[in-house]
């Protein structure tokens, strides 16, 4: 390089370092906006073989993360997005056209609800919301133009369960696709594809990454559908960036160890709270009085059902505030799915805009606290909650 100028040398030094063509033990982060080619033949071959060109089109970190997600969800192929919402919007924008009809669970994540009503509404897609606790409500909403049936596995924050097998059968009888959000439950607890779901979406920002340091989303479905969704995602600008994909892959690689622990801790905490004198109700599918217990036992495997739970204390906001301040470990956080236990108060956050009467019908009262359980020792965590609940004495 000695024959070139200082500026040129500075630009090309380090281009070929020892190790560039070795097989690293773990996947490196490909922080590059593009991959270069040396001539027309290579350019043609790369495009023809869907190789790596520009970062928004394809990137090895998204490919690698997609492979792990496909393995965990038991699906053919996965695509990686900039967020859970990116995964949801890109998929819906690909699959739905003006005049199509969608049936959506009325108990759904607030921003998914807004996508259905605001974004799809603008595109001329009609939506019917139905209470999925009774599959007959879905059957009654089906029309000839119903293209998609959408649900989460467990609803936030009441943890009501959807009979995935029954809904998948219904969808397929009528030629509709069944799309399931597995964010709360994760494939470590349940794999919706095994129950007949056609498309599974995950917000990787939550339990799947688990380390609360990256935002991302995924969809898992057939290679044919991924082939349609990928070009739309590229146009919408929703594919995940390499660094977040790399970080999330680190998290996802340990999901099958972390999540059974978190779900076990959640079960123990649910049991301890259910026995507490100041707690009138605990929502968690592991409890014997869970209203859909038989369905839960049929659907969830040996790893557990969910690391989320909610419980009801007296409707005294001042005391609830004192309770939160008294906890040693959990902090309030407007997210879920981290290594540390966090909590939220649905009436003053996620369900703030819902009228009180409607909220109460949904089982959400000012005394409800939602908990995302981490990987703390179950006894330490239960003792912390029991101690903080003394503020209600
Ligand atoms: C069930 C569910 N789905 C989707 C999302 C959206 O995920 P993200 O925040 O990664 O866009 C969330 C976010 O909280 C969620 O709780």
Account of the 3D structure:
By secondary structure, this protein is α/β, with parallel strands linked by helices. It has a domain at 256-392: Aspartate Aminotransferase, domain 1, CATH 3.90.1150.10. The chain has helices at 6-12, 40-48, 60-73, 84-95, 110-122, 135-141, 164-173, 186-189, 223-236, 242-252, 255-274, 293-299, 317-326, 356-361, 378-388; strands at residues 77-81, 101-105, 126-130, 146-152, 177-181, 199-203, 217-221, 281-283, 308-312, 331-332, 342-344, 368-372. The protein has a 7-stranded mixed sheet with strand order 1-7-6-5-4-2-3, with helices on both faces. Strands 8-9-12-11-10 form a 5-stranded mixed sheet, with helices on one face. Strand 2 (101-105), helix 5 (110-122) and strand 3 (126-130) form a beta-alpha-beta unit. The N and C termini lie far apart (78 Å). The mean pLDDT is 95.
């Amino acid at each position: 390089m000695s024959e070139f100028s200082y500026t040129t040398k500075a630009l090309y030094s380090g281009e070929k370092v020892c190790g560039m063509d070795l097989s690293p033990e773990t996947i490196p982060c490909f922080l590059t906006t593009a991959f270069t080619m040396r001539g027309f033949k290579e350019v043609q071959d790369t495009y023809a073989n869907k190789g790596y060109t520009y970062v928004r089109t394809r990137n090895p970190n998204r490919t690698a993360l997609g492979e792990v997600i496909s393995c965990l969800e038991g699906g053919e192929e996965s695509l990686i997005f900039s967020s859970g919402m990116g995964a949801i919007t890109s998929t819906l924008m690909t699959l739905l056209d003006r005049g199509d009809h969608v049936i959506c669970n009325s108990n759904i994540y607030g921003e998914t609800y807004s996508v259905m009503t605001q974004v799809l509404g603008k595109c001329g897609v009609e939506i019917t919301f139905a209470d999925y606790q009774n599959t007959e409500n879905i059957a009654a909403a089906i029309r000839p133009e119903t293209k998609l049936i959408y649900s989460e596995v467990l609803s936030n924050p009441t943890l009501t369960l959807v009979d995935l097998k029954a809904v998948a059968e219904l969808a397929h009888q009528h030629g509709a696709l069944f799309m399931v959000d597995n964010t709360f439950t994760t494939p470590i607890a349940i794999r919706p594809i095994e129950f007949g779901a056609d498309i599974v979406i995950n917000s990787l920002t939550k339990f799947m990454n688990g380390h609360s340091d990256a935002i991302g989303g995924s969809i898992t479905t057939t290679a044919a559908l991924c082939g349609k969704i990928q070009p739309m995602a590229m146009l919408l600008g929703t594919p995940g960036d390499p660094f977040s994909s790399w970080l999330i892959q680190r998290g996802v690689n340990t999901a099958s160890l972390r999540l059974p622990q978190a779900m076990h801790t959640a079960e123990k905490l649910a049991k301890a709270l259910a026995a507490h004198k100041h707690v009138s109700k605990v929502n968690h599918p592991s409890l014997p009085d869970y209203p859909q217990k038989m369905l839960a036992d049929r659907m969830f495997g040996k790893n557990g059902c969910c690391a989320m739970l909610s419980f009801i204390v007296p409707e005294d906001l001042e005391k609830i505030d004192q309770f939160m301040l008294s906890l040693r470990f959990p902090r309030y956080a407007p997210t879920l799915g981290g290594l540390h236990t966090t909590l939220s108060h649905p009436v003053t956050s996620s369900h703030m805009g819902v009228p009180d009467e409607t909220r109460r019908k949904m089982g959400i009262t000012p005394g409800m606290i939602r908990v995302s359980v981490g990987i703390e020792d179950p006894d330490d965590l239960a003792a912390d909650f029991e101690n903080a609940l003394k503020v209600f004495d």
